[in-house]
Amino acid sequence: MKRITIYDVAKEADVSLATVSRVINDSNVVREDTRQRVQEAIEKLGYKPNAIAQGLALSKTTTISIVMSENLFAYNSRILNGLMDVAKIYNYNIMFHTTSKGISRMQDVIESIIKSRVDGVILFNDNFNDEEMEVLKEYQIPMVIVGARLDRKPEGKVGNVYVNFEKLAYDLVNESFDRGIDDITLVEDKLNLSMMNQLRRGIEKAYEEHGKEFKGYIGYDDSYKSSYNFLTDYYKDKKPSRLVITFRDSQAIAVRNAANEAGWKSMEDYEVISILDSKYLAMVRPPINSYILPEYDMGAIAMRLLTKMLVNDPSVQEDREIEIEYSPMIREKDKTGETEKVTFEAVS
Amino acid sequence: MKRITIYDVAKEADVSLATVSRVINDSNVVREDTRQRVQEAIEKLGYKPNAIAQGLALSKTTTISIVMSENLFAYNSRILNGLMDVAKIYNYNIMFHTTSKGISRMQDVIESIIKSRVDGVILFNDNFNDEEMEVLKEYQIPMVIVGARLDRKPEGKVGNVYVNFEKLAYDLVNESFDRGIDDITLVEDKLNLSMMNQLRRGIEKAYEEHGKEFKGYIGYDDSYKSSYNFLTDYYKDKKPSRLVITFRDSQAIAVRNAANEAGWKSMEDYEVISILDSKYLAMVRPPINSYILPEYDMGAIAMRLLTKMLVNDPSVQEDREIEIEYSPMIREKDKTGETEKVTFEAVS
């Protein structure tokens, strides 16, 4: 079957292309009998109006660009699901852009966003530097940045849907101090540097307020193939901190395995917590504590915020910063030095 | 800064919109001095040609739709990386569509693909039924289906980049027979039913050729919140099969945990293998064997195949089925009934 074009419809209805276009775009300058003839031709031929041509005629593409780092696909899948579901409700087309080391320069991504004249952009944090953000702002495309809090208050047409990682880390350290624990480590995560900085600021703030200095940042160089290899070496002759904080699940599991295999006992010698939750944390033994971040909701809220920004909804003229609540996910309890087994399950 | 449009350029150069459009689209019917005046206006104003208008003029959008199930996003991230990297090389725009139970009917996705007049489509298997595939085929849009092998040889403009899961399962069972193991279980995976069917066919074929009947398919109903809960009940009074096959990593880990906790010994009482590999399989103790499927390559090859189909490359006129090789990933060895510890590492 040949693809039916607007030309075929015009021929069939014996009208001009412009007339067909006007009918498709619900213009009211077309005479009723002509409109009917065009409609009949459309139905007879089974013509599907071209969304792109339609967009042009209405000078509105209803297209949103989502920009995401390739490295973080698997970790952002729930946020993406939330974004996509709301985009579907509003009938947006989604253009997908990925950034990756080596193959796609950020300039090219910006260029392609601007050239395709999208209506709005969703960015994951850690993708754009200040200079690149400025370029996008100049073009006045509404943007929502999802994930971490922006260091500066967003100006122009920029929204931010975020988890306050600085506050999370600050509260976590204060609770640990209350439990008598002040020997704390934060393990570097090179994939999420802006989150890392925010966690570190929160920890340092809590230490300072208690007149202490935080010295527990563990960075490791790229010569190590994995956190596990590094930590296995590290814990060979060093006791883990009483509390070890990691950002991602796989790093927390690496701490768990390396410490266990070096003979250290969970909840007696050390405990480990992952900021991001994942089902795999429930599958290691003992299971690992974490935080539940409502990631699907973050995506859905970010897309909804963008929708409001696109129509200049007054409710988002002033406030385009939305903080998302999190809650702790306790899988292994600490009771005054004693390990208490809690029920856990491996979700599959 | 106001967004510069083609109207501004036309005004600045004192020419018609059509002339600006012709210059942008490299038409040679424009006089050289006019062309220069338009180019100067474009540079002066910093105008970015609208990719959509450009596409229309060239009757070529260079846009590819990728259709993927929301549930499987995290599992397909490496395939997606391969797709995106090759798409970038060819400067394609990527439209992203997701399917999900309840919220997006497949008809709507098809409708939106057809309306946006994309040049080609990448589908993940398990997304479309035969009837829906027929609809897409009628519109003659080149399509590549990635993941599992199509049950029927692709006709029309359809390509297929796949892992032969039937052969994989057939070989695995034959090797197990050679090791004296014929007590084998396949655990149901409702998210990947077409892969399930292919694995099952391969297993049944191997059994039949040995004059045996395969009875080891474990299905479980949705009332169980997770494979782990189901399997914990299941292994309470039943010994696991000597070889348990699962499709996804989390199911294999659920088998490992449920069997271990019921007191069964890995490699003595049972062994478990996951068809899909993941880093988490290296992180459980003992680590779990799997298959390395070159997923990034699958994505890259699928997009490259589509590229060739788009230009009617003669090399893909006949053969649009590409089988991808896999290799076993042995993390725990079985040596005549004796467990041999091998070196393993947790990648992070």
TrEMBL record, chains A, B:
Instruction: Please list the residue ranges annotated as the HTH lacI-type domain.
Output: 4-58
What Gene3D superfamilies does the record tag this protein with?
A: 3.40.50.2300, lambda repressor-like DNA-binding domains
Assigned keywords, A-Z: DNA-binding, Transcription, Transcription regulation
Q: Which SUPFAM superfamilies match?
A: lambda repressor-like DNA-binding domains (SSF47413), Periplasmic binding protein-like I (SSF53822)
Question: Known InterPro entries for this protein?
Answer: HTH_LacI (IPR000843), LacI/GalR-like_sensor (IPR046335), Lambda_DNA-bd_dom_sf (IPR010982), Peripla_BP_I (IPR028082)
Pfam families assigned:
LacI, Peripla_BP_3
Per the record, the coiled-coil ranges are none
User: Is Nucleus included in the keywords of this UniProt record?
Assistant: no
Return one GO MF term. DNA-binding transcription factor activity
CDD domains, per this entry? HTH_LacI
PROSITE patterns given for it?
HTH_LACI_1 (PS00356), HTH_LACI_2 (PS50932)
Q: Which PANTHER family match?
A: ARABINOSE METABOLISM TRANSCRIPTIONAL REPRESSOR, LACI-RELATED TRANSCRIPTIONAL REPRESSOR
* Record's protein name: HTH lacI-type domain-containing protein
